[in-house]
Amino acid sequence: MRIAYLITTSQPIGGAQVHVRHLATRLHEVGHDVTVLVGGEPSGTPLVNSINVRYLSALRRPINPLFDVRAYAQIREVLRELRPDLLSTHSSKAGWLGRLAGNSLRIPTIFTAHGWAFSEGIQQPGRTVYLCAERVVAPLASKIITVSEYDRNLALRYQVAMPDKLVTVHNGVPDVASSLRARPELEPPRLVMIARFSPQKDHAALLYALRELQHLPWSLDLVGSGEDRARVERLALELGLSQRIRFLGARQDVAEILAGAQVFILASHWEGFPRSILEAMRAGLPVIASNVGGVREAVIHGKTGLLVPRGDVPALREAIEALLINPDSRIRMGELGRKRYEAHFTFDRMVEETLAVYESVLAELKL
C-alpha cells in the first residue's frame, strides 16, 4: 500500500507528531511504501528516520490566506507526483488543506482528529471558527478517525459527519523494558506532569493545589516546553514552590523520567486522548487527571487513578494528598493501570485497528 501522511508541522513535538512518527515507521517496517509530508523546512531532529520525508515550506500553523493557498498548491503538486493509494492527514490545518487536495485528485483521504479544535474548554471565537471549517471539509474525507469516543460523540453532536464516516481508534503507545517500570511506593513521592506549557494545559491549577500541600514531602518534575513556561516559572516562585520543582524542558527520555516517579498528573482545560497518560499507565503509575475529553476512557476513577473536574483546585489538591499519604493506593492503582494498558492501549492494537480502517476505505472503492 502506498501511504502518504500529512501533518502541519514537526515542531513542537506533540501527540500528533509522535503518533505519525510511530505509525509511519511501523508501516514502513512491515513493507508499505510510506511518505511523510510535513510543513516547514528541515531543521533539528527529523520527524521520522529512514522514511521519505517531503517538506512543504508554505504549510504553517497560523492562518494566513496567502501561505495557505500556496500550501494547498504544494500539497497537491506532491500528491500528484506520489499518487498514493491513501492520504492520511493529521492536525487541523493539514487536515483541512489535505482533504481539499486529496479530493481534487480523487485520492481517498482520512483525517485523524487528535482532539477537536471545537472541544469543550477551548475559548471562543476559536471554537466556532474551527467547527465551521470542519463542517466544510468533513464530507471530503473517506473516513474520520477519532482517538476517543468522546471526540466521536462530539462530532455527532455538532453534526460534523454522519455516524458511518466516524470511527474511533484509541491511541496506543509502544511498550518499554520491564526495567522502566515505576515503583510508586517509594518515599518521598516524586510527582511528574508531561505537557506543553500552553493555554491547553493547566499548570497553574497544579501549582495552586501544591501550595496547600507544603506540609507533606514531595517534589515535582515538569517536562515540556512552550510559550507559557516563563509564566509558570514565575508563579512557582511567587507561591514559594521553586525549591521543590524541576523544569526539565522537552526531553527524549520520558520513559526514564516516568520510571523514577511515583504519581503522574495531567491538569488540562481540554484534551483529546492524551498519550502521556498511556505512557504513565505503561510505567505502572497512578494517574491524577482533569476529567476532560477522552481522559475517562483511559483512567478509571478510583481504580487506576483519580479524575477531577476541570480547573477545580480543591479537588486536585485532595486527589494529590490522597496519593501522597497512601503508598498502598499508589501501588494498587499503578498495577491496575499497567494491566489496563496491556489490555487496551498497546501500540500493536492501534496499528491493527488503523490498518483495518485503511483497508476498509480501499475496499469500498472497489465495490
What's this, in brief?
With 367 residues, the protein is α/β, with parallel strands linked by helices. The protein contains 12 helices and 13 strands. The protein has 2 domains: 191 residues, Glycogen Phosphorylase B (Rossmann fold, 3-Layer(aba) Sandwich); 167 residues, Rossmann fold, CATH 3.40.50.2000.
Notes on the protein architecture:
The chain is of the alpha/beta class and 367 residues long. It has 2 domains: 2-172 and 347-366, Glycogen Phosphorylase B (Rossmann fold, 3-Layer(aba) Sandwich); 178-344, 3-Layer(aba) Sandwich (Rossmann fold). The protein has helices at 15-29, 65-82, 92-104, 126-137, 149-157, 203-211, 229-238, 254-259, 275-283, 313-324, 327-344, 347-366, and strands at residues 2-7, 33-39, 52-56, 86-90, 109-113, 143-146, 166-168, 190-194, 219-223, 245-249, 263-266, 287-290, 305-308. Helix 9 links the parallel strand 11 (263-266) and strand 12 (287-290). Helix 9 packs across helix 11 (327-344). The longest helix is centred in the C-terminal third of the chain and has 20 residues, at 347-366. It starts with a strand and ends with a helix. The mean pLDDT is 94.
